[in-house]
Amino acid sequence: MPPSAYFVGSAVFHYLGPSFAVLLFARVEPLGVAWLRIVSAAVIFAVWRRPWRFLRNRLLLTWGLVLAVMNCCFYLAIDRLPLGTVAAIEFLPVIVLAALGARTPRNIAALVLAVPGVYLLTDVQLAGEPLGVAFAFANAVLFALYIVLAHRVSRQPHMSGIDGLAASMLIAAVIATPLAGWAAVPAFDDPVALAAGIGVGLTSSVIPYICDQLAMKQLARSTYALMVSLLPATATVIGIIVLAQIPSWVEVLGVALVVAGVAVHRDPAEAEPEPEPDASALAAQSG
After folding, report:
1. Residue 127, CB half-sphere, CA atoms under 13 Å: how many?
2. Domain ranges of the chain
3. Residue pLDDT, tens place only, 270-286
4. I want to staple 68 with a disulfide (CB 3.0 to 4.6 A). Which of 23, 41, 152, 176 is the partner?
5. Contact, 223 vs 111, CB < 8 A?
6. Gap between the Cα atoms of 80 and 137, Å rounded
7. 169-192 per-position pLDDT tens digit
8. Under 8 Å between Cβ of 203 and 55
């Protein structure tokens, strides 16, 4: 399958997870939701991949730490700020990652289109609780690190990206337990909360993260970082189809700008000119 297909799968399931999280927020604290998400995903990966031999890998230890803290910061942020504000802050370092690979006028134009598109879609409003803003910025930095580390894991020659992801989720579960496990205690005697927690882990961490690995294996990091800007557009489409939420003209303009930015962007590897044939080699062939 082309990498764009895997990315679409990641984008769609990325927004199915919050539908389960809404149910959980009424029953479990935000940190408890984060713990249920991480641990349920870790259990699924452990049963499926059995990645025990990779647990001492330093790259995976770092990625597991990032996954644990990032998820905790994300849920603490959306508990205090509108989801649109948190998403807007989250995209700031992602666009910077894309800019690191923008070495042609075409790619710079893509960023010029994508950045205002993300701004219009997420309706940036930084006014809010200072602690929530701090958690949102911490989540944004960690999300950028997630992309960097996940891309490196996807290119490891001695293991598959999915096995690396499985080991990292196990590490994340260990790290998250002292940070957030206590907040999930009320869910232990609530079958609905536990089922929703498994749903959050499956739709928010298992399926989209697997799709990320399959896409990153074939895409440059800067290309993937810019494609992430499509997530607000994906959310708008899901809102229309599932929730009958008709977007305003401002949101439609934002979707158009983001899609245009992704369409204009070109992978730096593809932008390199092909080497000219060697003259002596051509002469030899013609002789």
Report:
1. 1
2. 3-267
3. 544 444 444 444 344 44
4. 176
5. no
6. 13
7. 999 999 999 999 999 998 999 998
8. no
